[in-house]
Design a protein that fits this description.
The chain has one domain: MFS general substrate transporter like domains (Growth Hormone, Chain: A, Up-down Bundle). It is about 75% helix and about 0% strand. The chain contains 15 helices and no strands. Helix 3 packs antiparallel against helix 4, helix 4 runs antiparallel to helix 7 and helix 12 packs antiparallel against helix 13. The longest helix has about 35 residues.
Length: about 425
């Protein structure tokens, strides 16, 4: 792992700066929206702009890569993301903020795609798993570091916006210093929703629900913290705790899913997350330590479920189908993410701030019911037939699926004809 990291340290350092800048923005915008008097509904739609931008960026950026190349795309996206942060700092207007969040999401999608495709090009079959593990750790660790930084600016929010802008701007430097030529890029094939549902209805619905849940937390978590009286430092701890929980539990949960029915593991972590969110309703600023503990457990349950759902879908796929399926599933997750923030905002606006964790817990309950239903409809895949669990960062793009050592992707393959059934010989697809 150390050798893989050393060979690609510029990429990983650039990625760390990107994620830290993103994490800082997530918390800072929620805090500033609350302090600026934005309504909860308005804030929810502003925060949803990022996920909408990510969705469109994942579609548009691959076309740009084919035309102008990795370095130019990364430089342009970095400049746009940096400028968007500064515009937000200068103009306290929800319409402008929403537009800038869409631009930010599109820009970050582009930067993620560049980093992931470059890492894939630098990886061999032997190091691909190590690279993905490092990508996972740096992505989540960078987000957490950025969220903690909100406490270092005191009440000088402008300085924090500038800090976020600087980190995103500097991220382009290591990429420009990367030795060797930029890799060629071909967009992964995306499996249709119809085929995804045929493969694994649980993975499709589960990733949509996961997107909703993550968007609720990232979009309105800082607003919740501010509303119950947290200062910037406390909000930073509050928002970082789920990331730490994810880092601690991602791999142990994954190992369990390789030994037992993966759906059972998804059910257990979903229930665990629901209980943690339910308990969080009883704690406020006065019981801050207990609230942080709930967030640790919730993050440790929420984020692994993303990788678990993709792994569950992979249990029914051949290696050559995994990248296309993951690309489609990431899009499904993105659609859910666009919905999550406004949904939480509407709940807070009309049911009160106390409804935030009630809504979060309700999403977990919905997921548990889906899992139970699917367990009653399809037999479990034998352990020996399951593909190994691979942790995939939720913040990345669909291109990260190419780093999965179990996946096989031949660039430039033609899409399978609609009349063909690629799963006809799979005994587990029914």
């Amino acid at each position: 792992m150390l050798r893989s990291a050393a060979a690609s340290w510029t990429l990983f350092f650039g990625l760390l700066l990107i994620m830290a800048g993103n994490g800082l923005q997530i918390v800072l915008l929620g805090v500033e929206a609350k302090d600026s008097g934005f309504s909860n509904v308005v804030t929810g739609f502003v925060m949803a702009g990022y996920f909408l931008g990510m969705f469109f960026g994942s579609i548009l950026v691959p076309k740009l890569l084919n035309n102008v190349g990795h370095v130019r795309v990364f430089g342009a996206m970095s400049a746009l993301a940096s400028a968007a942060v500064l515009v937000i700092a200068l103009f306290v207007n929800p319409v402008i903020w929403a537009a800038m969040r869409i631009l930010t999401g599109l820009s970050f999608a582009g930067m993620y795609i560049v980093c992931e495709s470059w890492l894939n090009d630098k990886s061999t079959n032997e190091t691909r798993g190590q690279m993905l593990s490092l990508y996972m750790i740096i992505s989540m660790g960078g987000l957490g570091i950025g969220q903690l930084l909100v406490g270092f600016g005191g009440e000088q929010s402008v300085g924090l916006f500038v800090m976020a802008s600087v980190m995103v701007s500097i991220a382009v430097v290591p990429i420009l210093l990367t030795a060797g030529s930029a890799p060629s890029f071909e967009e992964p094939e995306r499996m249709s929703i119809r085929r995804l549902v045929q493969v694994s209805p649980l993975a499709v619905v589960g990733l949509a629900i996961n997107g909703i849940a993550v968007s609720m937390m990232f979009g309105m978590g800082a607003v919740y913290g501010r509303s119950i009286g947290m200062d910037n430092t406390e909000v930073g701890y509050f928002m970082t705790a789920p990331m730490l929980g994810a880092l601690l539990l991602q791999y142990p949960v994954g190992r369990l899913s390789d030994r037992f029915d993966r759906r059972l593991v998804i059910l257990v972590v979903t229930i665990m997350g629901g209980i943690a969110a339910g308990c969080a309703t009883m704690f406020g600023k006065q019981e801050f330590a207990l609230l942080i503990l709930c967030m640790l457990i919730y993050g440790g349950a929420l984020f692994p479920s993303y990788s678990l759902c993709i792994a569950h879908a992979n249990d029914f796929l051949t290696p050559s189908q995994m990248v296309a399926a993951a690309s489609g599933l990431v899009m499904v997750n993105g659609v859910g993410a666009v919905i999550g923030s406004p949904l939480a905002a509407l709940s807070i606006e009309y049911l009160g701030i106390g409804s935030f964790f009630v809504m979060v817990a309700s999403v977990q309950v919905a997921m548990a019911l889906v899992v139970l239903f699917r367990m009653s409809r399809r037999s479990a895949v034998p352990n020996e037939a399951q593909s190994p669990f691979v942790a995939i960062p939720e913040s990345g793009s669909a291109v990260v699926a190419t780093l999965n050592p179990e996946a096989q992707w031949v660039p430039g393959t033609d899409e399978i004809a609609e009349e063909e059934d690629p799963f006809r010989d799979n005994p587990y697809v029914n």
